[in-house]
């Protein structure tokens, strides 16, 4: 708080010198702060307290509770029975969970790569396009529609005799693949890539737009091809944007639920276990299905494993993606 | 002054937030003479209309107010956490499986023996005697009734009576005769069987029926309970499953049966694209908007195998009272009142469903099935495995069952897969 109150031009010296000697002249004590600072300081706790309490109660509390519940067998109604790490032991041997976890990774890596490759390709193409704002809006469109609606549309496209089959028949392919019966997970991956690309195109385009055009002109004069332009100019100069997007994607991909649930399942039923990700697994062990199993302890263990995995992943990503920021 | 304003502002903010979050909770317990009912229906559904008029009559006669919340099908998922907090409704409804697994098995359903023994107001007969007593197998847990049914559904093979005028008198009784009929239809260039194969439960109807017809009611449930999964490897089971394999290999299912989104295939069936659909008695009302003109809903019971079991796979929809309910006596009074003929009738005439009272005439579309229900034994739909072993169908039975019916695996491969998955399932339950 006090730091931000220091005028900008003094800030650098203030922080360094105050670290060196507490009696540095720039550091203001409470007594000689102005009335504005005093008021702001008084407002600090009353305003921070409310969100802080909400955060603790609604985020941190449940997270800790999940960990505690994961050590028990609990149907959500009766008494909890302590199982120690029993849930984790069974979980790691559970084929359904392992499959769901593998699917989560496939979505994270496979769809992630597809989304980023497509986003960069589109960003590069759109950079030189005349109606780019319109094109960007169109690409962003799937992001603002409810995933449920998209999944219905997706069903119409891929079902037997659906839009895609009709299109294939139009070009003479009458014996197309059974999309939903034999390639359901692939179709889901395709759908997820399609839904998410628009969002990352928008972010990456914002980064690409900051690159001064003369760098590209210089590339052209030097005879660089499209890939070289991307590799030596676009990627290094948008690195901080890419790194942030990668973390965003990691976190959001682990939480993907609605599209999978609505597209793979029906009114009463969960999707087949073969296309579950860990979020669906957790739902499937608690409230999902025609007669829900209410295995809260077991599901919490799955949630804790997913959370730990996410924390490790984000940490690793941040280490791997850390680069010197290039000033331009 | 300043400080005071700040504190007031902060307090107000906190107050508003606290109020809005508290408002989400919404306590179901209201006044003393109010009965709180959480319904599985949405307000616009025909069943809700029938219930509404019955409730209006009840309120007028008893002076008890009924506070209905039309929660929809996920009502029990809302009741479950409420059981923990103690703020439960006095009355809920759902199908027997769901009520059983959410309320009866954890010991949260009130024993309704007294209701079954009570007189239906103005009729001089007990609740059990007017019909619900017949559905004991579906409505009791540990020998005590946990629910009172007001609708019944049953499974059968459905077809268009206008296209098969002779079938009503000469239904194929046995599996072989049925296959012969299918072969004839195939020869005429028809796709005889409709199926929305993306719903594992619908696929299982075939497998469960064929297993139970050959090995007797309760077989699938008994096999599923085997912790090792080895019960599947019995030769008799393998032989019964060969019929499913043959059915799948026979090419009887319409194109798209295993590559569509429900309800595409049942809609196409109603439009006349295929002949038979193995389904519950809700199908006439579910497909009435897409049925071809002149479509006459008719049904025949699932054929028997080698003269064995011919029972009707049945389910019930009805009320249950949570043990923690605040007004259980009022709820019981309401239940007895609901069984009156004038209240039950609407579920048949307006909602086009079967009801547990045999003296209420079934809708014309369901008349054949209503007869079968009067004459034959009743077996719980899906052999009750979906209620007794939650997630067993999703995680164990259906992945392999879907593949078997789609002709992707053999009966032996099915057994291998199911037995392994079952052993794993029992490790975590």
Automatic annotation (TrEMBL), chain A:
Keywords: Cell membrane, Membrane, Transmembrane, Transmembrane helix, Transport. It is a multi-pass membrane protein. The keyword Nucleotidyltransferase does not apply. This is Sugar ABC transporter permease. Residues 1-34 are annotated as: Disordered. Residues 13-24 have a biased composition (Low complexity). InterPro entries: MetI-like, MetI-like_sf, UgpAE/MalFG_permease. Belongs to the binding-protein-dependent transport system permease family. Signal peptide: none annotated. It comes from Streptomyces luteolus. It comes from the Bacteria. It is found in: Cell membrane. The chain crosses the membrane at residues 43-69, 100-126, 138-158, 184-208, 229-251, 295-317. Residues 101-317 form the ABC transmembrane type-1 domain.
UniProtKB/TrEMBL annotation, chain B:
The keyword Signal applies. It comes from Streptomyces luteolus. It comes from the Bacteria. Keywords: Signal. Coiled coil: none annotated. This is ABC transporter substrate-binding protein. Residues 1-25 form the signal peptide.
